[in-house]
Each structure stands twice: as C-alpha cells, then as structure tokens.
C-alpha cells in the first residue's frame, strides 16, 4: 500500500509482527493493503538510530512519520484522533521552523501584513534596556534579570539565550496572549523546542520551510541581503556558496531528526509562491471541522468529537 508521511491510516489488523493491514482513513471505501509494522520500521532504523520498540495496541488510527537517525525517540507512526474544531475555539499555534536564511522571518512578516486581524506574533522577552523608539509589548517585553531567571526555572520559556550580557527568550505566556485574542500566533523556534508546545493547550501546527536546490538558491538568493544579527542592523551580508550549502545541510538534518513533527513542508524557492501556498494552507487550518491531532492531546472536551464521528469511535 502506497502512503507518505502525514497520511492518516486505519490499522485493521496488527497480528503479524512484520506487516500490518491498513487502509486510508480518508476513504471509507478503500481496500486494505499491507504496510510495514512499527516493529519492522524500527528494526530497519536500528542500524541508524540504535533504537527500537514494539507496539501491542489493537486497531487504531496512526499518522505516518519517518523514523530516522538522530531522532530523540522512535516515531514511525503516531496515534491520532479526529478533533472537531469549532468556530469559537482558539486558533492553533502556528510554528514555523527552518534553517537560517531560508526565509521564515519574511514569510511570517508577509502573513502579518496580509491580514493583521488574523495573524499575530509572540513578542520576545529581554533583560536589556529599551532603545530609542522601541515599545513595550510590541518590540520586546522588557523584564528584570530576576524575572527572566525565574521564568527559566519555572519552564515558561520555550527557548532562550544571552547576547552581550543580556537575556533574550521566547515565552509560552507571550504566545498564549496572542491566541486568546482569536488570532493565529506565528512563532519560529528551533524544531528541538517543539516538544515544549506539543500539548492540547497550544495544538501546534508545524510548518517546515525548506530551501530549494542549490542551483535555485544561486539564482534567487545570490544578491539578496540578510540581517545576521537583529541587535546590530549594520551586520548585513549577502549569501555565499558556503551559506547555501550550510542551509541545505541543516535543512536535511532538521528533516531527518524532526520530520515526524512537521504537519506541512513548504519549499521556499520563489518567496511569493511559497507565501501563497502557506497562506492557503493556514486558511484551511483555521476552518472549523475535523482535524487529525495526536492522541496525547486528548482531553474530556474531545469526547464530543469522537461522538460526532461515530464510524470512528470503535477504533479508539
């Protein structure tokens, strides 16, 4: 049975240790076919990741994801459930990830400009003094060192670091403040930090922005200037051949290690085309209706979703 990462499969028989019987969850009339069992996939991955595992669950729905070298734990399949998103529900946290220089910031900027009533951004925290025309809660949240370090200890920061003696960080509270306004919060983090927001509270929708081929990068980015350091606007550079190769290598590493967490992959060759694809995809994510989400996000409020999909309830 042919399938790809992100496809939702209904597992109808798991008796065999090597091959399972499954069919597409999106097509009730489809016939069952054979797919590699979780155990087989992990066995194949053992030579790369030196990790394996086995599932003994009965018939479930699973979303395919690739288990590969460097992942922190085996993720061959991920159990999912149908979630009924209603119009009154908060929007999901839109998490944009990708290597430096691929255009994540530009795509985020275009989204906010295109519809500021729908999209918002999480404002970072810093311990440095406010500069010039900077505004509290717009450019940064300016906090004391004590407050920042308290947030670190209480695990309120998704990621943080220091630069020239000052802390900078991305806060869970900042993202939540945007979400409660009804907007889609756009956040860019390193994919290793997704685990901190992979909860029912945030329901992250993860978009991986991937570079095109190195030939296309040479054509589209050779004369493009990029800001190396937000804190130092004078550090503007053009891309080099080494930058292009580093971007591609890092993207491959990210996809290998964290690809099982990506809901959408967009190749940013032409930024206008990538932006159009991203915006159309996020419009679908915002629509009320059935969405497949990890079972770990399941809460009592999701039971009504299962009842509304009676033909699926017996499988969970």
TrEMBL record:
SMART domains: GuKc. Residues 91-283 form the Guanylate kinase-like domain. Residues 1-45 form the SH3 domain. InterPro entries: GK/Ca_channel_bsu, Guanylate_kin-like_dom, Guanylate_kinase_CS, MAGUK, P-loop_NTPase, SH3-like_dom_sf, SH3_domain. Keywords: SH3 domain. Belongs to the MAGUK family. This is Guanylate kinase-like domain-containing protein.
């Amino acid at each position: 049975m042919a399938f790809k990462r992100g496809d939702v499969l209904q597992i109808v028989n798991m008796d065999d240790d090597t091959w399972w019987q499954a069919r597409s969850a999106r097509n009730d009339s489809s016939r069952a076919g054979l797919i590699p069992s979780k155990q087989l996939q992990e066995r194949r991955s053992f030579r790369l990741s030196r990790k394996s595992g086995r599932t003994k669950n009965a018939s479930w729905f699973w979303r395919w994801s690739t288990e590969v070298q460097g992942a922190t734990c085996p993720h061959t399949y991920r159990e999912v459930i149908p979630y009924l998103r209603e119009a009154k529900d908060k929007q999901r946290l839109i998490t944009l990830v990708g290597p430096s220089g691929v255009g994540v910031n530009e795509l985020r900027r275009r989204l906010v400009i295109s519809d500021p009533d729908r999209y918002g951004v999480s404002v970072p925290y810093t311990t440095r003094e406010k500069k010039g025309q900077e505004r509290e809660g717009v450019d940064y949240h300016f906090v004391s060192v004590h407050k920042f370090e308290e947030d670190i200890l209480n695990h309120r920061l998704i990621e943080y670091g220091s630069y020239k003696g000052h802390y900078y960080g991305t806060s869970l509270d900042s993202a939540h403040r945007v979400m409660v306004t009804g907007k889609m919060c756009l956040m860019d983090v390193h994919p290793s930090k997704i685990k901190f927001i992979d909860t029912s509270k945030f329901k992250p929708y993860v978009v991986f922005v991937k570079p095109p081929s190195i030939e296309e990068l040479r054509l589209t980015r050779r004369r493009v200037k990029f800001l190396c350091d937000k804190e130092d606007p004078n550090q503007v550079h053009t891309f080099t051949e080494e930058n292009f190769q580093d971007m591609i290598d890092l993207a491959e590493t990210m996809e290998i290690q964290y690809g099982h967490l990506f809901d959408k992959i967009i190749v940013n060759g032409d930024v206008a085309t990538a932006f159009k694809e991203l915006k159309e995809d996020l419009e679908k994510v915002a629509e009320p209706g059935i969405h497949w989400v990890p079972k770990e996000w399941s809460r009592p409020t999701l039971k009504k979703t299962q009842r509304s999909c009676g033909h699926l309830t017996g499988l969970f």
